[in-house]
Design a protein that fits this description.
By secondary structure, the chain is mainly beta. Helices cover 14% and strands 38% of the residues. The protein is elongated.
Length: 156
Amino acid sequence: MTASVQSNSGVLVHFTLKLDDGSVAESTRVSAKPALFRLGDGSLSEGLEQHLLGLKTGARVAFTLQPEDAYGTVSPDLIQYFSRRDFVQAGEPEPGAIMLFTAMDGSEMPGIIREVRGDSITVDFNHPLAGQTIHFDIEVLDISPALEAVNADSAG
């Protein structure tokens, strides 16, 4: 077992993400189900990983990341407009609803219905927290030796 979080560590954490207005955007503490991440696999932003590096089991840290270091800035290119007829099979879209869309390559991606006006439906494919300053509160519960063993085996 590694004594501290390294660049390819598996890490089990409890976290709470808050917005500038103090509202909780997400928390593993509410469900009492911690999250397991592996640094270096692309699932976490580089800014977040930098704050986790070197932490030991039991460590608790609080820090703030600006949008570009957290979930990115809002990209106008990810806001798209559809015709109401594109939704015939899916039913009437409601603003605020999150729907899955199939991309040209067959992959699925979530989009948030931002506006329904006449025959036009505005869908936002930005991450829901894009453009937000995020206040993190993270507690390291375990540095997973199982994931580190898998990384060591696959590195050879």
